[in-house]
Design brief:
Layout lengths: L10 H12 L8 E6 L6 E6 L2 E7 L7 H15 L6 H11 L2 H14 L14 H13 L7 E4 L9 E4 L4 E4 L10 H16 L3 E3 L2 E3 L3 H7 L5 H10 L1
Parallel strand pairs: 1-3, 4-6
Antiparallel strand pairs: 2-3, 5-6, 7-8
Helix pairs in contact: 1-2, 2-3, 5-6, 6-8
Length: 234
């Protein structure tokens, strides 16, 4: 049977026990818990026709029982809008942010995830040309070029991002037009290039996305204020 359809029978008693602790007077409903081939540590829980349906990433299958209980508690607390115990939340965060789990998650995202490319050649700007110019200007030409692509849609919420799992920089196509000043496109690409130079690090349980070094180098972009002002107007 495919792993995406594998029923997690061993999880059901854990969910039943956590349900009883959360709702001591309510009758325990039937549970259906399944592992699915998610691309991260995704979990979902739904109440349908009196049954509680749970989907868990198969990356969680080999986690310690204490983590399984933390997951069950967190999901049930959210389903019934109860406070999540700080200790359970901390237990899951420690597991999810551990070096081994983080590395495994990145590998799975790369293997299972799909990335749709529209390519670096836009109607008005070529991202490879802009990248190469910035690479010489700020990095001495030493930064390896990742995949570069314009977004498929005119995204305004996510103007640009670096996907480490696929080594890809995506820039919103909303900037590929004559009214977009070149310094705005350069700043977006420069910002994502800094993510290549300064990868995300864990500080305790927190992900440090923009380190002190990252922010210091970002200030070196000459048209930073103009670019940020343009983005704000957009």
């Amino acid at each position: 049977m495919l792993l995406s359809l594998l029923v997690a029978v061993d999880f059901i008693p854990i969910f039943q026990e956590e349900y009883r602790a959360l709702r001591p007077r309510a009758p325990i409903p039937p549970f259906l818990v399944r592992f699915r081939r998610f691309t991260s540590l995704n979990t979902t829980i739904r109440l349908r026709e009196g049954r509680i349906l749970v989907s868990l990433s198969d990356l969680l299958e080999g986690a310690p029982e204490t983590v399984h209980r933390a997951i069950a508690h967190i999901l049930l607390a959210k389903l019934y809008r109860r406070p999540v115990e700080a200790a359970q939340n901390l237990r899951f965060k420690r597991f999810a942010s551990s070096q081994a789990v983080t590395r495994q998650t990145e590998m799975i995202r790369h293997a299972r995830g799909t990335k749709r490319y529209s390519g670096p050649e836009g109607r008005f700007y070529n991202l490879e040309e802009v990248f190469d110019a910035l690479n010489l200007r700020f990095f001495g030409g030493l930064l390896g070029r990742p995949e570069l692509t314009w977004s498929e849609g005119m995204a305004k919420r996510s103007l640009g991002h670096y996907d480490a799992a696929h080594n890809t920089i995506v820039v919103s196509r909303v900037f590929d037009r004559p009214s977009s000043p070149r310094y705005a496109v350069e700043y977006l690409l420069y910002h994502e290039m800094l993510h290549l130079r300064h990868p995300v690090k864990m500080r305790g349980l927190r992900r440090c996305v923009h380190s002190r070094e990252f922010k210091a180098e970002e200030q070196l972009f000459p048209e930073l204020k103009q670019a940020l002002a343009f983005l704000k107007r957009l």
